[in-house]
């Protein structure tokens, strides 16, 4: 073989080596790009998951805030209701102390009606009505209980049980010994009644 042929072979070999090297470099670059692309995709997925995690955390915090806000609103409503109840019943002790006076006035009115003195009855009646209306304006209300009403242990206090004068009064109220009173919605004195058996 001649030197020319050797030279051509060496050149071909160099070209072939350069080509192989170029191909290897290209493959490496593509692999590198694929790895970079995969890394970019992984990064995007991580960013998305981090973003989703942040959104979930934000949603949880919003839920906590809304629950706390609702609890606070309920607390405000409950305390204002309790405060109104307290104001309504703040004078309960005074009203309870006035009940025997009202009872005495009722007894006095009954006795004055029996006596027949019209002027005295009229004067005492005016004072009695004024006292009753003043107490009513402050929330005191007399409970209406009559003979023949059904006995209810939740709102009546039975002091005794007597044989019923008639069959229709069995298990019912025969007589009201002492009237009951309410202050607002609260019963401050239960009516004392006699029931029939």
Automatic annotation (TrEMBL):
Q: What is this protein called?
A: Protein GrpE
* Keyword Cytoplasm appears in the UniProt entry: yes
Species of origin: Christiangramia sabulilitoris
What does this protein's UniProt record list under function?
Answer: Participates actively in the response to hyperosmotic and heat shock by preventing the aggregation of stress-denatured proteins, in association with DnaK and GrpE. It is the nucleotide exchange factor for DnaK and may function as a thermosensor. Unfolded proteins bind initially to DnaJ; upon interaction with the DnaJ-bound protein, DnaK hydrolyzes its bound ATP, resulting in the formation of a stable complex. GrpE releases ADP from DnaK; ATP binding to DnaK triggers the release of the substrate protein, thus completing the reaction cycle.
What are the UniProt keywords, alphabetically?
A: Chaperone, Cytoplasm, Stress response
Q: Name one GO molecular function term.
A: protein-folding chaperone binding
Q: Which domain of life is it from?
A: Bacteria
The ranges of region (Disordered) come to 24-48
Q: What is the lineage of its organism?
A: Bacteria, Pseudomonadati, Bacteroidota, Flavobacteriia, Flavobacteriales
Q: Where is the composition biased (Acidic residues)?
A: 24-40
Which GO biological process annotations does it have?
A: protein folding
Among SUPFAM superfamilies, the record links this protein to: Coiled-coil domain of nucleotide exchange factor GrpE, Head domain of nucleotide exchange factor GrpE
- Gene3D superfamilies under this entry? 3.90.20.20, Head domain of nucleotide exchange factor GrpE
State the InterPro entries in the record.
Answer: GrpE (IPR000740), GrpE_CC (IPR013805), GrpE_head (IPR009012)
Q: Which residues form a coiled coil?
A: none
């Amino acid at each position: 073989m001649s030197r020319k042929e050797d030279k051509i072979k060496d050149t071909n070999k160099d070209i072939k080596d350069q080509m192989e090297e170029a191909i290897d470099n290209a493959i490496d670059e593509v692999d590198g790009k694929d790895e970079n692309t995969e890394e970019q995709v992984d990064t995007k997925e991580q960013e998305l998951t981090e973003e989703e995690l942040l959104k979930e955390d934000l949603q949880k915090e919003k839920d906590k805030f809304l629950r706390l806000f609702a609890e606070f609103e309920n607390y405000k409503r409950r305390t204002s209701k309790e405060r109104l109840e307290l104001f309504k019943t703040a004078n309960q002790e005074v009203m309870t102390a006035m009940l025997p006076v009202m009872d005495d006035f009722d007894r006095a009115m009954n006795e004055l009606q029996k006596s027949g003195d019209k002027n005295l009855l009229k004067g005492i009646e005016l004072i009695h009505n004024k006292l009753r209306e003043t107490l009513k304006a402050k929330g005191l209300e007399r409970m209406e209980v009559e003979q023949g009403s059904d006995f209810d242990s939740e709102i009546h206090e039975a002091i005794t049980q007597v044989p019923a004068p008639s069959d229709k009064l069995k298990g019912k109220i025969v007589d009201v010994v002492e009237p009951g009173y309410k202050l607002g919605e609260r019963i401050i004195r239960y009516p004392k009644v006699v029931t029939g058996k």
